Amino acid sequence: MTTTARAEPAGARSSIQVSQLSSAPLQALFRLSRAFCALYFPATLLMLLYKSQAFSCPPGHLLLDAALLLLMGLLEALRLHLGTKGNLTEAEGPLAASLALTAVSALLAVHFLLRQTLVLWADSALGAARLALHGLEAVLQLVVIAALVR
């Protein structure tokens, strides 16, 4: 008994459709945010140390800013992990959690931009860039979540 295999022509598409709802621009923004965090957190910590030495700021206020910076770093790591995971696996749950953490992280970024004890011009520049990244990521996360829910 012989069997014959039927080969499809080279240009033919199979009947299996692959859904590709993950976003390459969102993934690129997550990578850019990781790189930016490698600059932002050490720079902000160094500026806090500088402020404690060069200016007469209450130590309790600088300690609070340092604690908020640590909290923001932990939230940022979790946010980027969940966002990357949700985008690559096309799961709206992790993306929605990442979006919520983006809002919290943006509020902390606003604190460092406007409300910390002493705001230097470098704080303003880094904070504005951070908020711009968060805004772009939030918009793209909403678009991807909407596409996944459909």
**N to C succession of SSEs:** HHHH
What is the end-to-end distance? 49 Å
Mean pLDDT over all positions: 88
Number of domains: 1
Structural classification:
mainly alpha
Work out the helicity level. over 70%
What characterizes the major β-sheet?
none
What is the strand content? under 5%
Helix count from the secondary structure assignment: 4
Uncertain spans: 14-18
Radius of gyration: 22 Å
- The count of β-strands is 0
In one word, what is the shape?
elongated
What does this structure look like?
By secondary structure, the chain is an all-alpha fold. The protein has one domain (24-149). Helices cover 77% and strands 0% of the residues. It has four helices and no strands. α1 (24-54) runs antiparallel to α4 (121-149) and α3 (92-115) runs antiparallel to α4. The protein is elongated and about 55 Å long. The protein starts with 23 loop residues before the first helix and ends with a helix. The relative contact order is 0.15.
Question: What's this entry about, in short?
Answer:
The protein has 150 residues and is an all-alpha fold.
Give me some keywords for this one.
elongated, 150 residues, mainly alpha
What secondary-structure arrangement, pairings included, does this model have?
Elements: H1 24-54, H2 59-89, H3 92-115, H4 121-149
Helix pairs in contact: 1-2, 1-4, 2-3, 3-4
